TrEMBL record:
Record-linked Gene3D superfamilies: Alanine racemase, Lyase, Ornithine Decarboxylase, Chain A, domain 1
Catalytic activity, EC: 4.1.1.96
Protein name: Carboxynorspermidine decarboxylase
Domain of life: Bacteria
Keywords for the protein's UniProt record, in alphabetical order: Decarboxylase, Lyase, Pyridoxal phosphate, Spermidine biosynthesis
Binding site for substrate: E244, D280
The Orn/DAP/Arg decarboxylase 2 C-terminal domain, residue ranges: 56-336
A GO molecular-function descriptor: diaminopimelate decarboxylase activity
Organism: Ureibacillus yapensis
Cofactor: pyridoxal 5'-phosphate
């Protein structure tokens, strides 16, 4: 596989490798082909719509959690549009219904409030679902655990009203984050125990997101077996809506060293920011990988990498390198396509990274660059 010329990319910039994206999409399509399930792109994780012409050849559609995501999927992806939100605002629901094919409610009250409106949409059938909380998850970080104690996401079994399912065609649950099919297998035990008796009345079950299907060690055969089991047992269509799995390990963040200072250790200041450009580094927190770098003290020269904002904690992490860092050196972070572009912001007036695509025929292609007007137009 031809290597990317990082000097051809603006700094900072996100670069998505179309070859790697295609690999992920082919894996996801193989799951659909082997099971007949539907796999959707969850836009909350990856909304780079310049990749949609490729993705729509492999996926059934998109899933959204806001009006703008639903519109983006409708206008740019052009296939099925699914929606789930913790609650829908009354002034937005009519526009939602212009875009969506499936809508999932988080409570019976919201279902009753909007059911008649959904069922009266002209020109198409909008399938109604309810999100339930299976009461079991194995997510270790509370910030990302949909089933943490007192979670607002999904109807718990003690609030479920089986006599109020008229018009409901599907059940949705989401209980995973970056996990394997072994975790899904254990979740399904709890899900069936609590809600299995109602599934025979349904047309579909949505397993939500958090499935790391394209990770190298993911057990795809087990996933296929679980999907087929549920579809055969309950005579339903299974839907999955991963976000991260579509873009996993497909993207890079190309950055440049601006300066090197010393305060007890060597500190390299980059033209990027953890808080602005890779917020999960601070929220999770986690330490992103860098091409050619290693853990502190493993290689000859160790540095702390810091961002360019005035936030004291805008620190990416400590890394070691074979050669000393100097101003102008390129630093390339890996796995930077998902939960970056969709979450970044302009705190401190720091500009957003450019957005680029790479393929072997065209090389690095700049899709979008940002400037002062983008910053100003978000303010008043």
């Amino acid at each position: 596989m031809k290597t990317i010329d990082w000097k051809a990319a603006p700094s900072p910039s996100y670069v998505v490798d179309e070859r790697l994206l295609l690999r992920n999409l082919e894996i996801l399509k193989s799951v659909q082909d082997r099971t007949g399930c539907d796999i959707l792109l969850a836009l909350k994780g990856f909304s780079m719509f310049s990749t949609f012409p490729m993705a729509r050849n492999y996926l059934k559609g998109i899933t959204s959690s806001s009006l703008f995501e639903a519109r983006l999927g409708y206008e740019e992806f052009g296939k099925e549009v699914h929606a789930y939100a913790p609650a829908y605002a009354e002034h937005e629901i009519d526009e939602y219904l212009k875009y969506v094919d499936h809508i999932v409610f988080n409570s019976f009250d919201q279902l009753h409030k909007y059911k008649e409106k959904v069922q009266s949409v002209e020109g198409k059938h909008v399938s109604i679902g309810l999100r339930v909380n299976p009461g079991y998850s194995e997510v270790e970080t509370p910030l990302y655990d949909p089933c943490y104690i007192n979670s607002r996401l999904g109807i718990p079994v003690d609030s479920f009203r089986p006599d109020e399912l008229d018009g409901v065609e599907g059940i949705h649950f989401h209980a995973m984050c970056e996990q394997g099919s072994d975790v899904l297998e254990r979740i399904l035990v709890h899900f069936e125990e609590k809600y299995g008796e109602y599934l025979h009345k349904m047309k579909w079950i949505n397993f939500g997101g958090g499935h790391h299907i394209t990770r190298e060690d993911y057990d795809v055969d087990k996933l296929v077996s679980l999907i087929n089991y549920m579809q055969d047992k309950y005579d339903v269509k299974v839907i999955l809506e991963p976000g991260e799995a579509i873009a996993l390990n497909t993207g890079y963040l190309v950055t440049t060293v601006l300066d090197v200072v010393k305060n007890g250790m060597e500190i390299a200041i980059l033209d990027t920011s953890a808080t602005c450009h890779m917020p999960d580094v601070l929220e999770m927190p986690y330490r992103p990988q860098i091409i050619g770098a290693s853990t502190p003290n493993d290689k000859a020269y160790t540095y702390r990498l810091g961002g360019m904002t005035c936030l004291a904690g805008d620190v990416i992490g400590d890394y070691s390198f074979d050669e000393p860092l100097k101003a102008g050196d390129k630093i390339v972070f890996t796995d930077m396509a998902h939960y970056t572009m969709v979450k970044n912001h302009m705190f401190n007036g720091v500009n957003l990274p450019s957005i680029c695509l790479y393929n072997e025929e065209e090389g690095v292609k700049v899709v979008r660059q940002f400037g002062y007007e983008d910053y100003r137009n978000r303010l008043s």
